[in-house]
């Protein structure tokens, strides 16, 4: 079945799959959901793959990934459940560093979905405001306001006595 | 280190290493096949609704899920020589019957529910979904055939209860099954009756929900409108609403229902509060005072199903309970009630440039009148939403009289109007534009 994939598709999955998974993990906070999200996005991209120039593949898949994430939120069967227990996190030797990551991931999961998407695109994917707006299908003004709100909220959530942020 | 740089560094650090999936590509390929089949089924169902005589092939949406093996292409199970599936457009006459057997045949390929219509008075069930069921048809058929014969009777046309018409499509014909909830009702199959129409109705709802879990909602959904009657939906829960309108009326009667669209973030907070709030059993109390609002949060789901949350005497209900909304949600509801009470229009239905300016002035005045700061913020957003450029929102009320309108051109916009307004202190001119003839009017500037 994989042999029927369009030219370059399989190579793209091999090269970029893990990077997409990382963004999906920050959005969903769950490894399995992240994998589902990545596979869903790539399955949606498949039929139009050959109609898009190779330098447009990354933006196209990223857009599908984020819009699929938004659609999952609207459809509640994949709704997120608040939890006191953090999902899986990176392994580290340093307790302090681990705590900081826990705090950051925990704060991220408390942001509204739109703000979380903006945070991931702007500061994880390192996109500009204009690129973020294009991916999310909204105005640059919305990205700016969502970014500002997200930063304010993150600052507030991370100002714990231990000082999650240095 | 700036906050942004700190965030960049630590976000990258926070993500765990991917646990390598067994075969990501195989997973994508399997998902691709499922999507193709589902999309084909959806397209087939849509075509069935509108086009008569279009040939659709059997393999597109019946049969077992394909194996994930590398065997055949996703559409190779199609059989071009299959006869077309009959159209499944809803009929006006929900009491329609057919002359088929009193037992439903196996081999159904699609089903659609139509209605309901109230026997006496309006229907109490929500309108049937727009989507066509193309999965689990054998289970649906079994839920009809499994009910014992009896109930109903010839000429059962009324009584207190809704009537649905269930259309069950086969390759070469369509069966019309009446689900009649009136006191003399039942399930009518051919010329015979069976008992308990609730069973196939519930089964249809269950199967449709399962089908929706693996399909994509339609790209557009209807705008929510204010319900005039209690609505129960078997197909969706109230907290699945994604768009909603706050509809407010007062127990003293006589006043029309005012309404306001609920911003998405506000809706999410209210629904979260409604879902989680503690409840107490509903008991009928004294009548509401004339200033106590009755309100309905009337919404639509991502699939276009109509769902409602209703409040009697300002107490929202959840099933057989009253719920006490948490403070944040309660405050938002109060803001919406106040905003709806002043009936602010958002300008989307302004047919002329003049009306848009008029609505904007109304909104500015309403904002100055309301007592709640939350309602004032919401109205401010409505007023600002009427602008295409950076909005201007005065501190207080405006006392402006709009004058005549004159037309002028503006580069990049197909139409633009100048709307002069007179104030006690002078004169101002709105420049109001829209991109196309059908696009909404928006304020570009206001020169004073």
Would you give an account of this structure?
Chain A is 64% helix and 0% strand. Chain A contains 7 helices and no strands. The model of chain A is unreliable at 73-94 and 160-166 (pLDDT under 50). Chain B is of the alpha+beta class and 448 residues long. In chain B, 27% of the residues lie in helices and 23% in strands. Chain B has helices spanning 3-14, 24-50, 137-145, 198-212, 264-276, 327-341, 353-369, 373-384; strands at 110-118, 162-169, 174-180, 186-189, 192-194, 241-250, 258-261, 279-281, 293-301, 306-312, 315-318, 321-323, 401-402, 406-410, 413-423, 426-434, 442-447. In chain B, helix 5 (264-276) packs across helix 6 (327-341), helix 6 crosses helix 8 (373-384) and helix 7 packs antiparallel against helix 8. Chain B starts with a helix and ends with a strand. Residues 38-81, 251-256 and 404-414 of chain B have low confidence and may be disordered.
Topology:
The complex is a heterodimer of chains A (166) and B (448).
Chain A: H1 9-28, H2 31-45, H3 57-74, H4 95-109, H5 113-124, H6 129-136, H7 140-158
Chain B: H1 3-14, H2 24-50, E1 110-118, H3 137-145, E2 162-169, E3 174-180, E4 186-189, E5 192-194, H4 198-212, E6 241-250, E7 258-261, H5 264-276, E8 279-281, E9 293-301, E10 306-312, E11 315-318, E12 321-323, H6 327-341, H7 353-369, H8 373-384, E13 401-402, E14 406-410, E15 413-423, E16 426-434, E17 442-447
Antiparallel strand pairs in B: 1-2, 2-3, 3-4, 4-5, 6-7, 6-9, 8-12, 9-10, 10-11, 11-12, 13-15, 14-15, 15-16, 16-17
Helix pairs in contact in B: 3-4, 5-6, 6-8, 7-8
């Amino acid at each position: 079945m994989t042999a029927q994939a369009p030219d370059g598709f399989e190579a793209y999955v091999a090269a970029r799959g893990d990077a997409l998974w990382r963004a999906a993990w920050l959005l969903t906070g769950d490894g399995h959901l992240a994998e589902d999200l990545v596979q869903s996005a790539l399955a949606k991209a498949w039929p139009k793959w050959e109609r898009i120039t190779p330098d447009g593949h990354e933006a196209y898949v990223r857009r599908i990934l984020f819009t699929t994430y938004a659609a999952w939120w609207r459809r509640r069967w994949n709704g997120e459940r608040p939890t006191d227990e953090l999902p899986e996190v990176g392994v580290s030797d340093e307790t302090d560093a681990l705590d900081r990551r826990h705090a950051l991931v925990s704060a991220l999961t408390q942001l509204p979905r739109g703000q979380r998407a903006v945070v991931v695109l702007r500061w994880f994917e390192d996109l500009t405001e204009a690129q973020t707006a294009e991916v999310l299908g909204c105005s640059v003004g919305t990205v700016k306001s969502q970014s500002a709100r997200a930063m304010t909220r993150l600052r507030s959530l991370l100002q714990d006595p231990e000082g999650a942020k240095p | 280190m700036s906050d942004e740089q700190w965030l960049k560094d630590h976000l990258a650090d926070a993500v765990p290493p991917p646990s390598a999936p067994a075969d990501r590509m195989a997973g994508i390929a399997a998902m691709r096949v499922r999507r193709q089949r589902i999309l084909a089924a959806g397209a087939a169902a849509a075509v069935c609704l509108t086009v008569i005589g279009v040939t659709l092939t059997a393999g597109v949406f019946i049969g077992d899920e394909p194996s994930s093996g590398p065997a055949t292409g996703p559409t190779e199970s199609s059989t071009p020589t299959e006869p077309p599936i009959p159209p499944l457009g809803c009929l006006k006459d929900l009491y329609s019957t057919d002359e088929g057997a009193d037992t439903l045949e196996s081999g159904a390929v699609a089903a659609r529910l139509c209605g309901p219509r109230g026997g006496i008075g309006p229907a109490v069930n929500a309108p049937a979904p727009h989507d066509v069921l193309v999965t689990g048809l054998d289970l649906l058929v079994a839920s009809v055939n499994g009910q014992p014969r009896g109930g109903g009777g010839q000429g059962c046309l009324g009584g207190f209860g809704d009537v649905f018409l269930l259309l069950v499509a086969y390759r070469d014909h369509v069966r019309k099954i009446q689900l009649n909830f009136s006191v003399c009702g039942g399930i009518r199959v051919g010329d015979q009756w069976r008992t308990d129409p609730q069973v196939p109705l519930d089964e249809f709802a269950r199967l449709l929900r399962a089908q929706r879990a693996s399909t994509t909602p339609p790209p557009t959904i209807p705008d929510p409108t204010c319900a005039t009657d209690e609505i129960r939906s078997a197909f969706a829960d109230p907290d699945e609403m994604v768009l909603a309108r706050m509809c407010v009326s007062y127990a003293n009667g006589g006043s029309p229902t005012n309404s306001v669209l609920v911003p998405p973030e506000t809706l999410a907070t209210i629904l979260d509060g409604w879902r989680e709030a503690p409840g107490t059993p509903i008991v009928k109390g004294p009548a509401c005072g004339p200033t106590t609002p009755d309100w309905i949060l009337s919404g639509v789901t991502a699939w276009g199903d109509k769902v409602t949350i209703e409040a009697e005497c300002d107490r929202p209900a959840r099933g057989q309970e009253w719920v006490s909304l948490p403070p944040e949600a309660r405050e938002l509801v109060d803001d919406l009630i106040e905003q709806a009470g002043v009936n602010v229009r958002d300008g989307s239905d302004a047919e002329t440039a003049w009306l848009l300016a008029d609505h904007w002035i109304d909104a500015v005045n309403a904002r100055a009148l309301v007592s709640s700061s939350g309602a004032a913020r919401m109205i401010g957003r409505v007023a600002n939403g009427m602008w295409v450029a950076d909005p201007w929102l005065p501190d207080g009320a405006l006392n402006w009289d709009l004058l005549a309108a004159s037309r002028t051109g503006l580069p990049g916009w197909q139409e633009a109007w100048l709307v002069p307004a007179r104030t006690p202190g002078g004169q101002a001119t709105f420049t109001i534009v829209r991109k196309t003839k059908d696009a909404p009017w928006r304020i570009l500037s206001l020169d004073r």
